[in-house]
């Protein structure tokens, strides 16, 4: 059974962060992206990113809870570094 989780981050810089995340991940995994959407083949499972004028959204999938937690950590850890000026503490996951 595949598990899914969605994270959101309210920011007027959503497209910038989407592209930054995808460019960074592309150094190690297969990535496709443009200014409003992206897909990264993260080791724990795929991540699908989308950006609107005010919201960055990331949907992750994994086979186990541990892999889902690892994917959340990867996204949050990188986003905190890229969005530190906004005081980002990671995404809101549901």
Biggest β-sheet description = 6 strands, antiparallel
Rg over C-alpha atoms, rounded to the nearest angstrom: 12 Å
Number of strands: 6
Structural class: alpha+beta
Keywords:
alpha+beta, 94 residues, 6 strands, 32% helix, 36% strand, 2 helices, six-stranded antiparallel beta sheet
Report on this model:
The chain has 94 residues and is α+β, with helices and mostly antiparallel strands. Helices cover 32% and strands 36% of the residues. The protein has two helices and six strands; from the N terminus they run βαββββαβ. It has helices at residues 14-25, 65-82, and strands spanning 3-10, 31-33, 37-42, 45-51, 55-62, 92-93. Strands 2-3-4-5-1-6 form a six-stranded antiparallel sheet, covered by helices on one side. A hairpin with a 3-residue loop joins β4 and β5 (55-62). The longest helix has 18 residues, at 65-82. The model has no long low-confidence stretch (mean pLDDT 97).
């Amino acid at each position: 059974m595949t598990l899914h989780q969605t994270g959101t981050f309210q920011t007027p810089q959503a497209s910038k962060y989407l592209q930054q995340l995808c460019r960074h991940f592309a150094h190690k995994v297969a990535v496709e992206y443009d200014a409003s959407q992206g897909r990264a083949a993260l080791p724990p499972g795929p991540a699908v990113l989308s950006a609107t004028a005010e919201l960055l959204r990331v949907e992750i999938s994994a086979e186990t809870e541990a892999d889902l937690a690892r994917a959340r950590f990867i996204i949050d850890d990188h986003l905190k570094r890229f969005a530190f000026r906004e005081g980002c503490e990671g995404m809101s996951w549901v």
